[in-house]
From TrEMBL:
Gene from which the chain derives: glk
Pfam families: Glucokinase
Organism: Roseibium polysiphoniae
Domain of life: Bacteria
Protein known as: Glucokinase
EC number annotated for this UniProt entry: 2.7.1.2
Length: 349
């Protein structure tokens, strides 16, 4: 089956790929389809006034190659010619980037779309399986990442092609299921009259969950950050421990909901900054039991594998995969690709 021309992406090498987070910007250079990736030293976003300055500083320390294409992942939706970052002061202007760095093309995608692009290539030490199940080849995968927020994206396999689908799945509704959950959930503060998954299943949401747990246990705690909770759990604090146990069960249910919704027989993958800090709560059985507890479909769920992603930067890995083999993927580029011709047209128009 051949794809329409608008989906057949080609890029000029060298290609700069970038994963722009709220704290750090990470870059790599892809010199050609069969060359080794040149990973660059990460830089703090606060150290540079804009992304052009960060890229220049990075290239100065790299091999010296002048990129012709930039493929950039950002947290948040890609709309218009000015893209503000969610957790940093930068505003990314693709047309200005083309002028500043003499680029031919700039492509900007969602950060979890980039993570989805990595999923077909993750193997070996890149991932740690949690529980049973085996991935079905050439089947839909899903990535769920509790970090500052709760990111989510699907990697659909159709017509012999991988199709990343970003979304706002982190804002689905969540509620209690077990008897242990009910007294906790009734104490959790609502936001806008509802309880979305991100409001507790994220670094920013963990303190809200902990307050609900402490109230249900009639114990006073003043955890301000997710780090406060994970550190207290390491010291066997009762509230912190129960908070992370509740977190793992709820994350398992949400992951299972997405697996059912999409029949993600290729597996569900956990990423995000929170995941590696609570991995013992994800591997002790509670997460997986909640994932599988989807009557009447327990048998189906038991066959779908779940993984903790151990790769150091899956978003960057996904962008590299797309840069090397764009024909493997269908990525929507309308409104998300800017070219030098656009700059010239604007200047002469």
């Amino acid at each position: 089956m051949s794809l329409p021309n608008q989906f057949l992406a080609t890029f000029a090498y060298p290609i700069l790929v970038a994963d722009i987070g709220g704290t750090n910007a990470r870059f790599a250079l892809v010199h050609g389809p069969d060359t080794e990736t040149e990973f660059c030293v990460p830089t703090a976003t606060a150290d540079h006034s804009d992304i052009s300055g960060a890229i220049r500083a990075t290239l100065d320390k790299a091999s010296g190659a002048q990129p012709r294409t930039a493929i950039i992942a950002v947290a948040g939706p890609v709309t218009g010619n000015k893209i503000p970052l969610t957790n940093a002061d930068w505003v990314i202007e693709p047309l200005k980037l083309i002028e500043d760095l003499s680029l031919d093309d700039v492509i900007i995608v969602n950060d979890f779309e980039a993570q989805a692009l990595a999923l077909p290539n993750l193997e070996g030490s890149d991932i740690e399986q949690v529980g049973r199940g085996a991935p079905r080849p050439a089947s839909t995968k899903f990535v769920l990442g509790p970090g500052t927020g709760l990111g989510a994206a699907a990697m659909i396999h159709a017509a012999d092609t991988w199709i990343p689908v970003p979304g706002e799945g982190g804002h689905v509704e969540i509620g209690p299921v077990t008897e242990e959950d009910f007294p906790i959930f009734e104490k959790i503060e609502r936001v806008g009259g509802r309880l979305g998954a991100e409001q507790i299943l994220s670094g920013s949401g963990l303190p809200r969950l902990a307050r609900g747990v402490s109230l249900s246990m009639n114990l006073e705690r003043s955890f301000e950050t997710a780090a406060d909770i994970t550190q207290a759990a390491e010291a066997n604090d009762a509230v912190a421990t129960k908070t992370l146990e509740t977190f793992a069960r709820a994350l398992g249910r949400v992951a299972g909901d997405f697996a059912l919704s999409l029949l993600a027989r290729g597996g569900v993958y956990l990423t995000g900054g929170v995941t590696p800090r609570i991995d013992r709560f994800l591997t002790d059985g509670q997460f997986r039991r909640s994932f599988e507890a989807k009557a009447p479909h327990q048998s189906l769920m038991s066959a779908i594998p779940t993984y903790i992603v151990r790769h150091g930067n899956p978003a960057l890995e996904g962008l590299v995969a797309f840069a090397r083999s764009p024909d493997r993927f269908v990525v929507e580029l309308k409104g998300r690709r800017w070219s030098r011709e656009t700059v010239v047209s604007n200047a002469t128009g």
